[in-house]
Amino acid sequence: MNMSQYDPAFDDLLKLWPHLFEETRQSLLRIARAAARGGRPLDWASPQDEGVRHVTPSALAATAHHEAGHAIAALLKSISFRFITIESLNDYARRMRFLRSAGSIERIHGQGIVVMAGGAAQHRFSSDSVNKYHESLERDHVTAYALDATGSTEQAELMTRLWDIQARELVAERWLLIERLAAELLVRGRLSAADCRKIAFPAATTDTSA
Q1: 56 confidence band (pLDDT: 50, 70, 90)
Q2: Which CATH number covers residue 158?
Q3: Is 145 exposed, middle or buried (0-12, 13-18, 19+ CB in 10 A)?
Q4: Which residues have a Cβ under 8 Å from the Cβ of 190 and sit 6 or more positions away?
Q5: In the chain, how many domains are there?
Q6: For residue 97, what is the enclosing H or E element?
Q7: Which residue range forms the structural domain that includes residue 127?
Q8: pLDDT above 90 for 145
Q9: pTM to 2 decimals?
């Protein structure tokens, strides 16, 4: 898979998943074209809305837990990312930036779980805070990713359900870490991957003994 300009999986997504919302399809095309022109790196196929909405403190806390869920899962699954943030609050802006790459089936599974872990964490924090449209759109993106990996609609649906279950289990097992990271994200607004690791696993990052 050629990753020099942008992830070709986006092209496959558009071909194999024609019933995605037209608005989402157009947003994906704009992002892909920008990347092809040397623009910013792509994130998880997430459209960027123009307007910024007013965000209540409770919604901000829910967002922080959502992003912390992504980050903890990424750290545990060895999936690289640059940062998480609650500073960019567009109506549907993925606030975790991945450094995606082709790889093994383990990496594909890991990426699927990481994406699903955000919603799982937000559900656990406050199920009332979840936007059903955004949740279904995120699930559609994950299912399309699974379809690209398997080539089978049935297998893609099964894989997505498996990732959902595994993400919820991971969130339940690591909830204290997610809460710790979310609390720090609310204070600082933005955390790099290194920051996330230090906050979640301080012993591992401070032990320099050979």
Answers
A1: confident
A2: 1.20.58.760
A3: buried
A4: 83, 84, 85, 86, 87
A5: 1
A6: strand 96-98
A7: 9-200
A8: no
A9: 0.68
